[in-house]
Amino acid sequence: MIQRIQTLYLLIVTALVAVMLFAPLAWFAGQAGEYGLYAFSLRSADGTLAQPTLYLGILLALAAALPLVTIFLYRRRLLQIRLCVVEMVLLAGAVVMEGVYYFLSGRLFAGMAFHTQGFRPAIALPLVALLFAFLAARAIFHDELLVRSADRIR
């Protein structure tokens, strides 16, 4: 049974980022057909690679693995807090990279007479994961304060 709420928060962060690794983040349609922006590539509907987005994929893979590592460092709370901050930086970087790749992918279709584009719900998941990473860091900090106050009483 999970006794620390931050463990649940970190598991939620891992799950959200893992979903982003495989779910489409955005879509583009034009005369050339329909394309989807994924963590590792911009692909056509039939799976043909149009543009690699490897850096976003690597960043999201790191952001998915870091909370799992953080969970197992439960005896080192200050390190856990630092790793949560690193996770928040990775997630903020993922948001920025999503925007950059969305803009660059949109430019591929901008020259066409007809094109349209839009977001998929998975593109907002780093922001939700960022919230849960913050909640985990806050809960770990409260645990650290509780341990310090208990040590002071002895």
Give a verbal description of the structure.
The protein is an alpha+beta fold and 154 residues long. Helix content is 64%, strand content 15%. It is built from four helices and five strands; from the N terminus they run αββββααβα. The protein is elongated and about 75 Å long. It starts with a helix and ends with a helix.
What attributes does this structure have?
single chain; 154 residues; alpha+beta; five-stranded antiparallel β-sheet; 4 helices; elongated
Topology record:
Layout: H1 5-22, E1 26-30, E2 33-37, E3 41-44, E4 49-52, H2 54-71, H3 77-109, E5 115-119, H4 125-153
Antiparallel strand pairs: 1-2, 1-5, 2-3, 3-4
Helix pairs in contact: 1-2, 1-4, 2-3, 3-4
Terminus-to-terminus distance: 29 Å
Q: Quote the beta fraction.
A: 5-15%
Classify the oligomer: single chain
- Arrangement of strands in the largest sheet: 4-3-2-1-5
Can I get a quick summary?
The protein is an alpha+beta fold.
